[in-house]
Amino acid sequence: DKPTEIARNCPNCNLVSYPRLSPALIMSVIRGDHILLARAPRFPAGMYSTLAGFVEPGETLEEAVCREVFEEVGVRVDNIHYVASQPWPFPHSLMIGFSATYKSGDIRIDAKEIEDARWFSVADLPVLPSKVSISRLLIDNFLENQGTPTLQE
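User: That's the sequence. What structure does it adopt?
Assistant: Structure tokens below.
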């Protein structure tokens, strides 16, 4: 073990080896005064969240945002902006949060990953993820941009 970093140092050749990271994405998609939220079968009853997925080899983070949104719900996005990041509880993952705006398309869900997806206004939000999640930060940012105070737990 390398005492000054989270790394290992080879005693024979001095090669420093760092843990691998798998970048995961999470993104809010905004269409005017609505946010796109989806529900996976593993979520608690009634809860919806922002979309998420993993970056594939050879693509940029922005390309991955576009691909994941299109694969999961059939919607095209643009105006992609980095928001924040958060360690993710899967081994060796980092969740990177983005916001994007709706460009085109109708919701068409990928039933292998999502059981429902809808556009929600501030007035009709479903049960949301906990405030400790980056998903909730993305949703709260949407609310602030709509002139609505963030929701309390």
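The radius of gyration is 18 Å.
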